[in-house]
Amino acid sequence: MQENNLTDFQQCLKCNICTEVCPMMEVNPDYPGPKQAGPDGERYRLKDPAFFDKSIKYCLNCKRCEVACPSGVKVGDIITRAKLRYAHPEHQLRNFALSSTDLVGGLASTFAPVANPVLGLPLTRQVMDSVVGVSSKANMPSYAEKRFEKWFSSIEETQSRYEKKVNYFHGCYVNYNYPELGQDFVKLMNACGYGVRLLDKQKCCGVAMIANGFVQQAKKAARTNLASIEKAEGPVLTTSSSCTLTLREEYEGILGQDCSAAKEKVCLAVKWLYDRIDRGEIRLAFKKGLKIKAVYHTPCHMQRMGTQFYTIELLKLIPGLELSVLEQKCCGIAGTFGFKKENYELSQKIGASLFEDIRASKAQMVITDCETCKWQIEGGTGMKVYNPITLLASVIE
Amino acid sequence: MKEFDVIIIGAGITGAGTARDCALRGLKTLLIERADIADGASGRNHGLLHSGARYAVGDPESACECIKENMILRKVASNCVEATDGLFISLPEDGLEYRDKFLKKCAEAGIHTQTLSPQKALSLEPLVNPELISAVKVPDASVDPFRLVSANVLDARLHGAEVLTQQEVTEIIKEDGRVKGLKVLDKSSGTVNTYYAHYIVNAAGIWGAKIAEMAGVHIGMLPAKGSLLVFDHRVTRMVINRCRKPANADILVPGDVVSVLGTTSDKVPFEQCDDMKVTKEEVDLLLREGCKLVPSLAQTRIIRAYAGVRPLVASDDDPSGRNVSRGIVLLDHLKRDGVDGFISITGGKLTSYRLMAEMTADLLCSKLAIKAKCHTADTPLPGSEKSVKFSSVVRKAREMKMDTSVIEAAVSRHGSQVEAMDFSGKGSELVCECEKVCRAEIAYAVKVLGVKTLDDLRRRTRVGMGPCQSSYCVEKAAKALAEELGDTSLSEELKKDYLQHRWKGIVPVCRAEQLAQAEYLRNKYGK
Fold this sequence. Notes:
The structure holds two protein chains of two kinds.
Chain A: H1 2-5, H2 17-21, H3 23-27, H4 34-47, H5 64-68, H6 75-86, H7 92-99, H8 101-110, H9 112-120, H10 122-132, H11 148-159, E1 164-169, H12 171-177, H13 179-191, E2 194-198, H14 207-211, H15 215-231, E3 236-238, H16 241-253, H17 260-265, E4 266-268, H18 269-278, E5 292-296, H19 300-305, H20 308-316, E6 321-325, H21 344-361, E7 365-367, H22 371-381, E8 384-386, H23 388-395
Parallel strand pairs in A: 1-2, 1-3, 3-4, 5-6, 5-7, 7-8
Chain B: E1 2-9, H1 13-24, E2 29-32, E3 48-49, H2 53-56, H3 60-76, E4 81-82, E5 86-90, H4 97-109, E6 114-116, H5 118-124, E7 134-138, E8 141-143, H6 145-158, E9 162-164, E10 167-175, E11 178-186, E12 192-202, H7 208-214, E13 221-231, E14 239-242, E15 251-255, E16 258-262, E17 266-267, H8 280-293, E18 302-313, E19 328-332, H9 333-337, E20 342-347, H10 353-368, H11 392-399, H12 404-414, E21 430-432, E22 437-438, H13 439-449, H14 454-461, H15 474-485, H16 491-506, H17 512-525
Parallel strand pairs in B: 1-2, 1-12, 2-9, 5-14, 12-20
Antiparallel strand pairs in B: 3-8, 4-8, 5-7, 6-7, 10-11, 11-12, 13-16, 13-17, 13-18, 14-15, 15-16, 19-20, 21-22
């Protein structure tokens, strides 16, 4: 019985450790914190939905509360489910545009030569700010002229050379905004002796739809993706921490889908690679004479999955890379949160301390596994931020 | 020396209701209580506003009383009552024979029923035992007994009654065979005061036997202990009953934000009545039976156990004392024992308290030759006068960006009385996070509801009644209360007293999550 499984809030011992680690509480007195918005609020909402408080919208779903909870309460899930169930929609058009990455990305990349300069115009940003509610100060990603899927179909033939194959869930970011990451992934896999296959059909994982309350659309995306994953032969690799968390955890915890197939097959490329190198099945040959100083930022969702160590250990293999791992802090973007006009300041305040750490490190670049962290850090520090796969692809022979 | 028309002993629901009725009729009234309001059985029951269905088969008279009073209280005590409705479910081992009789008897008592298929019942209450073979919907409701007593006491006060708590009767003064007054020990100051009245009403529940002895009359009473369990949250929306002859643990009531399961029923000696402890065996029995109503209770966190004593009264016409009177017992001791100036009101139920109060006040008025009529059936209690959803106080609190759940919690507990609260400044500070009690509510409870200790505060606001059982908030609550009482040095003592009280109810249910919570509490404050 579904209702029965959704009562893990009763394991909360009210120790308030979650409120200690919540990045939103530190900067926003209007947010009552994960304990009150989550387990405390849930008891009352069960009595009567009238007890729902809209300040719950400030939850970033960073899941640091879940990592901290000594009793294993899925605080973030409780809050997100409450948002989906009780919140009255606000800024529908903008939120739909921000979360419908496949629709908007498809259009924008088709018209990228026009769209990018126009979207970057001060006037356009002004209009988007005042009419649509997308902050004119936020660092918006640009759109690629050639979608990843299109590029891939042009080289797909070359992949048949490889006997062993992996599937790739590229996600909307790689497809519309940054196909280079996908290309790097293919390059890296090929260098390891594996060919790449795309899923039969894939949609945006839906993380933004969940965050913006479009539960039906998110469920539709989940069902499409889960069906493709189930059909896929072999592992389904990913290059984004948030997509991975969504496919493996949120489909079940938030959307109530059976995602056993995703749990079995979906794996971060860094973890998959680390495991094989560790077992001696793959050896990477690195370029000589490298000299790179980089810092690694652990995305909140990476920490939730406990997978940051795979990235860190892989990076340590690169000769000549001086890597330091930053103290884990939230960058403040939380997917689409920081793009919204009303949240921009909060988002920057949350990220400020991380930006400070990065600047103080005097590193040449930042490595992280999340695309939205990348935009936020690039906007906040002016530094270049790369996915570990990109870095690895650039340093192998 | 003060003289009253009537002194009522015991601020449980019966005493509070009687005091209110008397005050509304213009009698000069004094209500005295040895501890705090609703400290006895009135605060230790299911919080069920019976539809009467439970009594329909065995006690038709009580059933009729219940349904009438149920309908009255929905209106006049709307702030204390939640019209949840109730289900009587039949399990395979119960069969349908009892149900058919039950339906017939409910119809005779005027209790509206609706028979539901198992599928329909499960769609309304997905967590009830899926093996049920039938369900009957009845107009049961959930009532908050603390709130109900408090509202009666408040209204009695507003109509001129004096209310004294922490006052123990030490002697009943009789002159020429007539009860004239009382000697009362003021527990806080240690002094003994004397009060005189034309009539004294004994509404002391099970302790009424002792009061009667003091007046030189005997009431045969049998203390029957009933133990209950409090679950962390609302498991069902409706009251869930077993459709069979009343037995152990066959009622689950959604009370405020928790679920209450009970009860057991065991005769206990009088000596135990002041210190009821729930045993492990009782907890096991309650859980075992409760899981037949709602199987998921086995995985639901139990936050507390408590027990109350039903004042069962031996029938006057049975010298053996084995036969127990059903229903309301109003004793005119002049008629019964030749002792004038003394009346006892006992038996009955939480649901029928208003009727008991009316009967008592009617008797008093006839003796005092006062013609005043009873108005309690159509005069709303304080807090239940109107809806405050859009009142200026609530709107202001919203504008201050106070958490909706905290405002709603105050409204749900105090109804239109929230208009007497000041949410500005410190008032908006949240004190008890589980139960969403803010500083404004505490200030109000001290000023208007006569709160002196944290336990008093708990009964009026739910402070510390949530899952953490005050582990997180007790410090804050003690400090806030001490400040409101105007003496910050009280804080430590208030805290210590309260933790003792809480601990008692946690011990019997120290298992699973609550064991961890108890460890947390003990480590934080136990040293």
